[in-house]
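Marked as duplicate of an earlier ticket. Keeping the data here for the record.
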Amino acid sequence: MKKNEIVEVEITELSYEAMGVGHVNGETVFVNNALPGEVVKAQILKDKKSYAFARISEIVKESPDRVKVPLRQYVQTGLASLAHLKYDKQLEFKQKQVKELLSKAHLDQIKVAETLPSPLETGYRNKAQVPVRMVKGQLEIGFFRRHSHDLVSLEDFFTNDPEIARVLLAVRDILREKRIPAYDEEKHQGQVRYLEVRRGTATGDMMVVLVCLDRDFPGLHAAVVDEIKEIAGVKSIFLNHNPKRTNVILGEHDYHLWGKRYIDDKIGDLTFEISPQSFFQINSLQTPRLYKLAIDQAGLTKDDLIVDAYSGIGTIGLSAAKYVKEVRGVEVVKAAVKDAKNNARLNQIHNAKYYVGKAEELMPKWAAEGLKTDVIFVDPPRKGLTKEFIDAAVKTGPKKVVYISCNPATLVRDMQLLMEAGYTTDLVSPVDMFPQTPHVESVTVLERTQID
């Protein structure tokens, strides 16, 4: 197939990135925005000999599961790449992803529960990080088109809390009015690279973070900050300094410009203080349901000592604290450990302690000192657990490992390693934390097969 050639394709399934999959003359074709059961005429964008990427030029036969998306930019940018699929079918797709990965690993005996739906299908995100760029001579915000750095300007952010969208647009207008230059990637100049807005769903308080090339610039305080602080709901303003040529959004240092140093949000009946770089689950209404599922399946007792690895600002460990004897949280980010300790004090929780360091280094040390771990909670990044962590966890001999995963591929890989070390499970429970996207969160409890 050649670039720009139009081919007719029958779509048979969705890829893990939510692209329609079909075949033409034995070659796999990935078609953006196409759904299983559809027949489409597709324009070839890129041919890689054994597979090709394409976009729809015409839908010949439409799926009954298709939703008419008001703005196709949602799908183009990957902001909501499943927005054209009915929500119940999105939940089935996520369950199927987990089933197929287990099947490939010859773990078909493990049951996959139905995906737990989100209370909100849109407008659920409590944080937005959006690029700021010049487009046709005007400062714009939006998202990059998938697999590119071409900005698609947006005014409706669909999956974000509508209040966050309101503040994003208000800040954009202030930057335009004050003629603050947007960042230029190629020239590595300009000022504002990204806007971050966080909202405490329970409190309504909002934090604005300007991610900038320089630590300061003309008009920052007298013009920009003085205007932003007048936006309804904004309680906190920071500048994040990111001077490097990098695709990483946030730099290392945050500078407090105005208002509160934290905003508050709740998980269940607990209050958490959130700073600019705090890891806090994106879907505030679904998070308590995720944690309750993990805690219930863990079967915790008042005699248990649990380790909360990758503890962040303490959300999981503090949520579990009332059910157990002691919580030990481990986190490599010093600022997060400080926040976790503050959150324990804020909620008057006295049986949770937090430590700076790598869990794979601290846990064997604790085991050597005679500490007996009953349950380990892990909520790792997408890359999953390291082999070193799994070895260290197994050496401390926990009865259970509660694995909260945001990537089913690394979950299945890590489950196999834990099974080789003597742990077993019969259930994976998918949870939809990110409606309108292909991302799958899940809870799996692995138990030691032989308990001393």
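See parent ticket for discussion. The radius of gyration is 24 Å.
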